[in-house]
Amino acid sequence: SAVISQKPSRDICQRGTSLTIQCQVDSQVTMMFWYRQQPGQSLTLIATANQGSEATYESGFVIDKFPISRPNLTFSTLTVSNMSPEDSSIYLCSVGTGGETQYFGPGTRLLVL
Amino acid sequence: SQQGEEDPQALSIQEGENATMNCSYKTSINNLQWYRQNSGRGLVHLILIRSNEREKHSGRLRVTLDTSKKSSSLLITASRAADTASYFCATVPTGTASKLTFGTGTRLQVTL
Fold first, then answer.
1. What is the pLDDT of residues B28-78, one digit of tens each?
2. Is B40 near chain A, with CB under 8 Å?
3. CA gap A104, A32 in Å, rounded
4. Are strands A31-37 and A89-96 parallel, antiparallel or unpaired?
5. A10 to each of A41, A107, B4, B83, how far by Cα in Å?
6. Please, which pLDDT band fits residue A18 given cuts at 50, 70 and 90?
7. Are B86 and B36 in contact (CB under 8 A)?
8. What DSSP designation does A86 have?
9. Contact B42/A105, CB-based, under 8 Å?
10. Do B48 and A100 touch (CB under 8 A)?
């Protein structure tokens, strides 16, 4: 298993601003993922964070809106850019450790006013 | 779009009763997993069943998989108040290299 932390745990932001969310893992992992969970909804995959190369985005998500960095095998950031109230969600990172199970961070609860 | 549909959307039972949740999906899969989420926090992995398996047990959990019907069920026996949470099925579609596609989820409330 892996222990994952996220910062911040929650934030309230003004529209038009950007927020960077950090995800730290206690061990080196191959695969890291970012998900969005809108209020009362299920999880939707935003992108796969690739170490040393550009993230792979899912349909409906673009790099300009959700830039992702992954400088090493234990850390990644997701930025939510030019926020609007529709971006209010829980953002979760997860990791795959080579098996098929994913381990999730505690999530970042974002409210955009 | 989301792969799986779960039913019921919400389930309320009393402690000691069994809870059954169902998941349907649309395409062929490598495996299907069940996760639990407490109060909008991070998800916890419960159990994984591979496409060539039909049933799997883990403690009070029993999962079945019917690939011909593209459906799965999660049974929690002798439920406890601590089982109150949202439960999600998630599939790894064939050829997608570990990417999870989540179902809509079932909110389970276990009352004393």
1. 999 999 999 998 688 999 999 999 999 999 999 999 999 999 999 999 999
2. yes
3. 10
4. antiparallel
5. 18, 8, 28, 25
6. very high
7. yes
8. G
9. yes
10. yes
